[in-house]
Amino acid sequence: MNSGSLYIGTSGFSHDPWAQGLFYPKDLPRKEWLRFYASHFNSVELNLTFQKVPEKDAFVEWQAQVPKDFRFSLKGFQYITHVKKLKGVSEPLRLFMDRVLKLKENLACVLWEIPPLGPDRKKLFEGFLSHLKKYPQAHHAFDLKDLSFVSPEVMDQVLKNKMSIVEPEGGKDLGDFPFRYFRSHGEKIEDIQRKMEKALAAGEDCYAYFTDDAQGKAIQDARSLLHMFKK
């Protein structure tokens, strides 16, 4: 069995404190930040798409600044998940995906943060899966804030559509997925490495992003994890 591919980076790349000597050279223009970032890491999670979806030109510009083997992950639009609560989302989902697909082959994953949805949560979630499977150009991962409805039937639908559920930090292993998506808010790097090594050995691609940008900690942690896999 072939081992999976490894993608490591941070959540966001345009944090202003990073330009004060924490990561970016002080004289580096902001428009060059992504190109510089992509020379150090092979992936980034764009979280700005959670609150507002940029115009198509922004995605075209980002895609032009990175090498072919670089991968973007991004957060799904909150209007779909938190405002519409997965109801009647066919058109907003189409508009969202129409823009993010401008990243072309550099688009890896869309992370959908799913809030508690009430008593119809299972039906709503399964309906959302049926919409997402129309967009196989991207991996789809789910950060579920309510895991109570994840029955074997729901899990089967996720796996059938080659999607994934983000494992809660410190939570139990949810099983095997076609790919793994890790978001660290402070989990021990050694624990993330152990989980990723197991998934990679099973042939699963792994995406890991560090979210704590205070004092450049996300940069430090991403570098440390990369170093562990290069030993």
In angstroms, what is the radius of gyration? 17 Å
- CATH architecture level-2 label: Alpha-Beta Barrel
CATH level 1 name: Alpha Beta
Mean pLDDT: 92
Kindly give the count of domains: 1
Question: What's the CATH topology label?
Answer: TIM Barrel
Order of helical and strand elements:
EHEHEHHEHEHEEHEH
Percent helix range = 25-40%
How many alpha or pi helices? 8
| Category by helix and strand content | alpha/beta
Look at the structure and name the CATH superfamily.
Answer: Protein of unknown function UPF0759
Distance between the termini: 22 Å
Which word captures the global form?
A: globular
Largest sheet: 5 strands, parallel
**Spatial ordering of strands, largest sheet:** 2-3-4-5-6
Number of strands: 8
Give a written overview of the molecule.
It contains 8 helices and 8 strands, in the order βαβαβααβαβαββαβα. The mean pLDDT is 92. It is globular. The chain has helices spanning 33-37, 56-64, 78-83, 90-100, 121-132, 152-160, 189-201, 217-230; strands at 6-10, 43-46, 71-75, 107-114, 139-144, 164-165, 179-184, 205-210. It is of the alpha/beta class and 231 residues long. Helix 7 links the parallel strand 7 (179-184) and strand 8. Helix 7 (189-201) packs across helix 8 (217-230). The strands form 2 sheets. Strands 2-3-4-5-6 form a 5-stranded parallel beta sheet. It has a single domain (6-230), classed as TIM Barrel, CATH 3.20.20. The two termini are 22 Å apart.
